[in-house]
Design goal:
The chain is α+β, with helices and mostly antiparallel strands. It folds into two domains: 123 residues, Immunoglobulin-like (Sandwich); 44 residues. Helix content is 31%, strand content 34%. The protein has four helices and seven strands, in the order ααβααββββββ. The strands form two sheets. It has a four-stranded antiparallel beta sheet, with no helix packed on it. Helix 3 packs antiparallel against helix 4. The longest helix is centred in the middle third of the chain and has 21 residues. The radius of gyration is 28 Å and the shape is elongated.
Length: 211
């Protein structure tokens, strides 16, 4: 009977330890991650990502000056309008060629929606966006962020960070491929929370990590 009780005690302790090891760290922080997402957008381009880049200030000034000269020539009735048009066309072709040979650059936007489950107001959150291989679930990349955001008890807030760093090394920073993220799983882990009353929650495993 003594050994049976001891065995039951060991099993009970093992069950408790297993339950503790599977606790969601975000729930332990007194909050819930409702959703997360990331996107890739071409920098300095208009709504259509496949069109040419927006002209810079000097190019815009030169184009405007040429258009004015052509308009003035037409109003004056002289024969210079056609010549000016040809010259402006040649200038535009040179500009287009220069942009064509310039690699595009992209900005990556990372988002997560957080709900404060505690009775205290959150003022700062350290969080990681972790990227896993969809097949093996091995970690391929991790982005670390800090957001100063006031989130009252029971309130929900979207955290957004835009940087030029891609999720993983497999994601290109100079090319557009809409399917390149299909092999990734994204997860958000909250590592540290500061509250407006001065208290702090920190995930135990992050004590020795540098941020």
């Amino acid at each position: 009977m003594k050994y049976l009780c001891l065995a039951l005690l060991i099993v009970s302790l093992a069950t408790v330890l297993l339950a503790q090891s599977t606790v969601n760290p975000n729930e332990a922080a007194g909050l819930e991650v409702l959703k997360c997402s990331w996107s890739k957008e071409r920098m300095g381009w208009e709504n259509d990502p496949f069109r040419g880049p927006i002209e810079n200030f000097d190019e815009m000034r030169a184009r405007t000056r040429n258009e004015k000269r052509i308009a003035d020539a037409k109003r004056g009735g002289g024969g210079d309008a056609d010549r000016l048009k040809r010259e402006a066309g040649a200038d535009a072709a040179i500009v287009a060629s220069q942009h064509k040979n310039t690699l595009s650059r992209y900005v990556f936007t990372y988002k997560t929606t957080i709900k404060n489950l505690s009775q205290k107001t959150i003022k700062l959150i350290d969080w990681d966006y972790v990227f896993l291989d969809k097949t093996t679930e091995s970690e391929l990349g991790r982005q670390q962020f800090t957001n100063e955001e006031k989130i009252g008890p029971g309130k929900t807030r979207e955290l957004t960070v835009a940087i030029t760093r891609p999720p993983t090394q497999t994601i290109s920073v100079t090319a557009l491929n809409k399917n390149e993220g299909d092999s990734l799983i994204g997860r958000v882990i909250v590592l540290r929370v500061e509250y407006s009353d001065g208290s702090i929650w920190q995930a135990p495993e992050t004590n020795n990590q540098n941020r």
